[in-house]
User: Which sequence fits this backbone?
């Protein structure tokens, strides 16, 4: 059996950032990936996807963005190229095409079983990310077999869907983007909208990500906020990597019909919640609270005259009586896209480190089993943890913890 | 001599600390959060009925109240009835309004907002062609429900809108009215 001090599972931005930190500290390690570097970005994203964050925010630790378009939004293929180059540059020891089948605790640390030789290690870093699996609600089982069902992880382009109407379930970043491009392909889209996060792409002449960065919202720490569970559940914002608005007003202007949260499928009918108005009112209120905070930040610094005036998005418009049901068996809806979020996949982690709801128990990435760490999860240590710009600081802090632990073990 | 005054504290009569403690406790022991609410309803005469609400199951065991609560339901004289109580549909509207109003108070307490008055007005539209079986295309229940809140509080209009939004988000009745529920009726 092979032995190494640290195994990192996942060669995406998080795994590579950790590799760099460990190399700096002289910790010998191996990165395992079921595919190649940036596997999920290569194989589980749709063709048109660009990052939601502008390029200046998409640098990697020690490798800030130096390209020609700092205010653009890079296509996923460009991100893949950037990660490939980064892996080479930092000399990341990636063992590709190695799928982890099971990881268990041993006296000396961990045993990682793969489709190749098993590996023994002292410390183990989970860097497979927050979006390993699409969430598909249980009601999907009641959808008639004649309706094609897919998820944003499997969907590539509109023409993968049958002709005819499409129900997109979920109005976070994935849902609003896919609703827009599928509708543009000539397939009429109905968008089921539950709790969502509305953000304008720009405000007062700057990208909203610039504002979030400036006012410090992205650097809020996991151990300093009131309700971490709620913060971790916050839906991704209704943004696209580009200038086009994708909020519900813009989508309705294109002809997309918005309905409430999909609450049940019964007798071949999709039933939607009558609470759509409140989901939208809540999102508008929350967005305006953030924009208030931005205005307050501007005012405190006396910068008001140097910036365009506040340009608040119009309140979300809704029909007087949004549809409460839609037949799934009359041919009107031919496919459903479940844009209902993602979750991590640690099904191969055979250790008692999960809570009653199956979520990994960790404190800022320090998992409940000594020597085990997680990276790249939503609000792991700071609000930006799941962003490209968030992995650097998280990797640095966790690598320091990991290194101290190795020292303690050696001294013992 | 000037009186030393206490710093003002918000008191809407809601023990939010207890509610937050309960939320904390439920995360540790989710089974304690499994409740079953009940009512029994006895026919009185005509379309007049009397519901009694007393015990419920929760916190892992059978719970009792100080005394039973009685809710009368009947129909107005325009329906050739004795008007001994509101119609069941109106009881439903009142349940929605009272659930949202309680929510506004609880959220206000949690957010440190002192309420002075809260009044919810609720309306439900109904086409009787449904319940009377005149038109199979018309549903029995409300085709639309509107709730209007008048809230006087030490807060901005946006904060008050936030209270009302959050109260809907956490309301059992709002959820029941806006989402389908499987209902099974049997004969003992």
Assistant:
């Amino acid at each position: 059996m092979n032995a190494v001090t640290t195994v990192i599972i996942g060669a995406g931005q998080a795994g590579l950032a950790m590799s760099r930190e460990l190399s700096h500290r002289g910790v010998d390690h191996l990165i395992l990936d079921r595919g190649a570097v940036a596997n999920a970005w290569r194989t589980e994203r749709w063709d048109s996807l660009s990052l939601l964050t502008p390029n200046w925010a998409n640098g990697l630790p020690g490798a800030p963005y130096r390209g020609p378009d700092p205010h653009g939004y890079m296509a996923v293929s460009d991100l893949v190229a950037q990660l490939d180059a980064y892996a080479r540059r930092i000399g990341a020891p990636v063992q590709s095409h190695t799928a982890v089948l099971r990881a268990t605790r041993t006296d000396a640390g961990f045993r990682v079983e793969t489709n190749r030789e098993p590996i023994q290690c002292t410390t183990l870093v989970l860097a497979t990310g927050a979006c390993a699996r699409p969430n598909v609600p249980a009601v999907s089982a009641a959808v008639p077999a004649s309706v094609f069902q897919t998820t944003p992880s499997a969907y590539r382009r509109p023409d993968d869907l049958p002709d005819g109407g499409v129900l997109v379930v979920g109005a976070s970043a994935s849902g609003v983007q896919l609703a827009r491009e599928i509708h543009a392909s000539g397939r009429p889209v109905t968008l089921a909208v539950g709790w969502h996060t509305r953000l304008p792409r720009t405000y007062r002449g700057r990208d909203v990500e610039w504002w979030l960065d400036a006012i410090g919202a992205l650097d809020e720490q996991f151990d300093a906020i009131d309700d971490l569970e709620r913060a971790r559940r916050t839906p991704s914002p209704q943004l696209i990597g580009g200038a086009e608005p994708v909020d519900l007003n813009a989508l309705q202007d294109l002809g997309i019909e918005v309905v409430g949260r999909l609450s049940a499928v019964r007798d071949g009918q999709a039933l939607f919640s009558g609470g759509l108005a409140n989901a939208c009112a809540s999102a508008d209120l929350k967005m305006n609270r953030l924009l208030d905070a931005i205005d307050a930040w501007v005012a405190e610094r006396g910068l008001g005259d140097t910036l365009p005036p506040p340009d608040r998005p119009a309140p979300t418009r809704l029909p007087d009586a949004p549809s409460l049901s839609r037949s799934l068996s009359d041919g009107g809806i031919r496919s459903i896209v479940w844009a209902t979020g993602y979750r991590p996949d640690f099904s191969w982690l055979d250790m008692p480190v999960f809570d009653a709801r199956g979520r990994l128990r960790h404190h800022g990435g320090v998992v409940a089993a000594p020597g085990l760490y997680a990276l790249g999860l939503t609000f792991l240590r700071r609000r930006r943890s799941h962003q490209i710009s968030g992995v650097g600081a998280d990797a640095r802090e966790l690598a320091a913890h990991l290194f101290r632990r190795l020292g303690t073990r050696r001294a013992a | 001599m000037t009186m030393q005054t206490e710093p003002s504290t918000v008191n809407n009569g809601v023990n939010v600390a207890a509610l937050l403690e309960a939320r904390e406790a439920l995360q540790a022991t989710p089974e304690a959060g499994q409740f079953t609410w009940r009512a029994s309803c006895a026919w009185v005469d005509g379309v007049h009925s009397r519901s009694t609400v007393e015990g419920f199951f929760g916190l892992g065991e059978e719970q009792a109240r100080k005394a039973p609560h009685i809710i009368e339901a009947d129909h107005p004289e325009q329906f050739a009835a004795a008007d001994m109580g509101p119609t069941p549909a109106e009881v439903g509207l009142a349940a929605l309004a009272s659930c949202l109003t309680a929510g506004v108070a609880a959220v206000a307490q949690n957010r440190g907002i002192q309420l002075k008055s809260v009044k919810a007005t609720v309306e439900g539209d109904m086409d009787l062609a449904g319940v009377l079986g005149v038109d199979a295309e018309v549903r029995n229940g409300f085709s639309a429900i509107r709730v209007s809140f008048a809230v006087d509080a030490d807060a901005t209009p946006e904060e008050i809108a936030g209270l009302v939004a959050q109260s809907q988000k956490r309301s059992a009745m709002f959820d029941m009215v806006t989402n389908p529920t499987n209902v099974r009726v049997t004969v003992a």
Notes: The two ends of chain A are 25 Å apart (CA to CA).
